[in-house]
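Structure tokens please, single chain.
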Amino acid sequence: MNASLHRLEGLAQQLLLRLKPELAHWLTIRALSLLPLRAAPPDDLRLAVKAFGLDFPNPLGLAAGFDKNGEVVDAMFALGFGFIEVGTVTPLPQPGNPRPRLFRLREDCAVINRLGFNSAGSEAVHRRLAARRGRPGIVALNLGPNRDSDDRIGDYVTGINAFADLAQLFVINVSSPNTPGLRDLQRQQELHDLLPRVLAARDAAPKRRPVIVKIAPDLTLDELDGIIHVCRAHRIDGLAVSNTTLARPDLIDEIKEQGGLSGRPLFTRSTRILAQAYLRVENQFPLIGIGGVEDAATAFAKIEAGASLVELYSALVFKGPKLVEEIKGGLLAKLEQAGVQRLAEARGSKAEDWAEGRVTGADLRRVPSPLAGEG
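Here you go.
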């Protein structure tokens, strides 16, 4: 992008940050939906990742929550993302929790949300994604149950059936803190009940799609052990680590709102449990690292902790769309610094350090960025 476009984007970013968060998000989606379709420049081959049987041009994905209803998939690919996670999508439309339900913590580069799976429903999302059929780009569908469902496991099965013809990946969201009782589905017995039904629906589809379970960062190690035991026993395709946290670690902003916290304060907690999961999975399936990714250093740290792919969302709120290309450029610099040719060579190289707490997000912020002016 040229300098004048960067300046224009910076002004738009500052304007959006003056608006109420949910209004700013709605305006962003509307603006992106009006942009002419264009392809992002091709990625450096050193950023390519093979995971879940798919070829990703780069490891950077858009996390669920930004494009809940599949409205701006191609616009986000144009920014340079390697994959897009749409959702969370529920079978039936639902409004989510009462407003206000989205809060910025500017000093912390963080967001608190208690949206509660506000969704246009699977029929509307399927219609939008079907309209882009044949266009390039890996799209993952994040699935959740309706709040008042009598059969939450059945809702996940409905989601698999609804999108089996369109999604390249399915993410089973059992870890949002904003739907009462949802995190109970992470328990061993509940997962034992859920996964066979979900995987049977997937296996009955014309083409096999990977199924990934998204877990919370607030698990004990015993709970994590139970989840990974069940996932390995049922031969799940991967884990997404992690969702938002109910904890409030060392916040600068004195905001007291309930909901899931994402962004910078989540980074250390989510990366530690990512590393703990990586060590327990023993290379049986790939991991997606989510939580607090805001620059090349944090993205590369997720990979060193064990992630094959990484996702971001909250940092876009504060740093704008140029962040995607900045991170990818920074990752190439990180590869050169590490003396490796591919990201896979760095995967898990510091998992033990992260798992044991010998490194934290604060350590990364003390190291200068490999890109001048990054962030």
